[in-house]
């Protein structure tokens, strides 16, 4: 008996190993890399690669048990000549997709006889008996993928021993299976034996109710029944502690508990319910309940039918039932397999027969909880709240996702409509986009997900967004019900305060005017320079970012008709034009909150302007408005006055600034105004092109020339629009600036008047380009399955290659590449190479903070790999680590499909 039980345990261990779940066919494995860096302008930036998606293909695999050979059959049935025999089998799908298993029977040619009337039947309740409604022969079974209900089926092979067979003769029969999805996948070692006998022969079948899947905490009722189908009455065997009789013995399945006494009856003899707590070595009628099964079969229940001599006649039957409870904490997929034995004497020798094996599997309970960081079980009303935030800022919420079910599961996360701006789902590093489901997560496991929300600059009220979590295996459900496949958490901001404000003030000899800090009092008494027509007046001023967010501001001027204003930086804030004169600007550039910068507005009075004697404050005739580029409603205005003397002249305006790529094209426009009292004939030329740049001129924007002449402009404010086109060759360095001074020279009567406008053009560009490719390999071999990693099988290795290239002409710094471990995969290896660096060491990290020159050998589910280059030798990654133009970092990341 101990040997039989050991064989059963070994078979169940093998069955569990075979049934290890694979990634389901059709699953998408998505992977996308990201990188962070500081560009050549000192701005922190992020970028993402293209996404590589691999579709898991179907693996066809199944098993039929019990196994057996012709010499050592897996099952033996004894019966009278001419009587039927029944063999019980379990067909299990061990692949990752649904399949149909075609079934046939094969007779042996080296035995004593062939069984007649062979047929295969579906044993729907796995009780080893052909019940009413199960008497239609089948040739195949349809099975869902492993790990799901319907992944296995019980079948019975029936046959009849020939009436001519003599005592002791036998016939062998094999059940053979073939996968319909992949006919090369077969199982053909399932031989069974029928032996003709005229001696006593007891049958034994076992049923489990319910059959198949069971819920944690529920009960399973096992029933063992049979009868004497032999040619004579059966006798008993000697059982320690009980005497002589027929013993039905059942080892309680590992983990199940029997708390109530079994029941039973028999057609002859005296029935006693018996127990053993030492593996069947001795038995007793005294109840030791409750008893819990273990892996060694220590605790057993049974029924003893006592009698003397050959007391159990032909056709006499018996039945024995007991109830066992499934642990409330039973993990999904836990298999409870059970078979019983019957010991008797057939008149000449002691016999031990084994029933069919019933297998119950703990049903999967898929549920999810999501809430604030560290939460382990939250309900659907969970809310994470920030008291306040500034408009224009970016806020992040960290939420804990927990698998509260009893089975490994993956989860789809989504965001509901947001009233706090544009929100993005990120992985736990807070940088890498979350693509595809999270998981699989083991039962009870957690994962941190980050929701980043950019609050609009114009937002003035609080808001919220809902983060939803759905089980992939149980995607629907009631949010208000715990332990369900759906949960949500609300992420909210109670109050949003404007993050933008600006204050402008006049600056006199380096001292801010009295209106500084008071955006409502920006007049400047006494600030009224006198200029000739065509001249200019300077207005030094300062701009302070009094908001909470970095911002840029544009400059605009309100001036008398025909007047213009050009703005310049005042780097030393002394109120005087810097030497040499800097390039004109149209705004502040980026100002951090709390910082102040100085500027000078140069008001150009047009030729021919009427004389003016402006009275300070009440007669201010110029004003400058500083406006936020982020939130147009945020601005401040300063005022001043200009006295004008009448002098005839021509003007060419405005000065222009712009940016251009390399190679690239940019068009500026200017206006030539003749404020003289007589028409003029003008020519246009420029002095730009120091670096091989080309400048072209046009009056209509379509016909271009290297210069213009013979241009007639009417007097008294007559004007002409000029177009200037800039063309840059390739390979210009980022930040290179060329200034083209456009000059209009006009003949007015006997006099000559001229004016110029400047065009300041700066080369921009330079960025990090991130590209990703993938290849899938057959298992761990070097044989390519798919050169684009579009498909893979469980067990295959996917190799991702991420290439980060500095495609610009300026250095990038602190470049960090991040690649997350995709769901449904296990980490294999990572490596990286570099080119275009004059020096540097590749460093690796699994948290983005701690770096090592040694590549990691493990990476947990939901984590990411980080790669960067240490160029200053401090074994860390900081802004001091530079990636020069044309340099590349190549990351090779290998994972294996689960």
Automatic annotation (TrEMBL):
User: Record's InterPro entries?
Assistant: DUF11_rpt (IPR047589), OmcB-like_DUF11 (IPR001434)
Domain DUF11, first and last residues per copy:
786-876
Q: Does the keyword tRNA-binding apply?
A: no
Pfam assignment, any one: DUF11
Keywords for the protein's UniProt record, in alphabetical order: Signal
Can you tell which superkingdom this protein's organism belongs to?
Answer: Bacteria
Task: Give the signal sequence positions.
Answer: 1-20
Region Disordered: list its residue ranges. 507-538
Recorded hits in NCBIfam families, A to Z, give: B_ant_repeat
Q: By what name is this protein known?
A: DUF11 domain-containing protein
State the organism of origin: Meiothermus hypogaeus
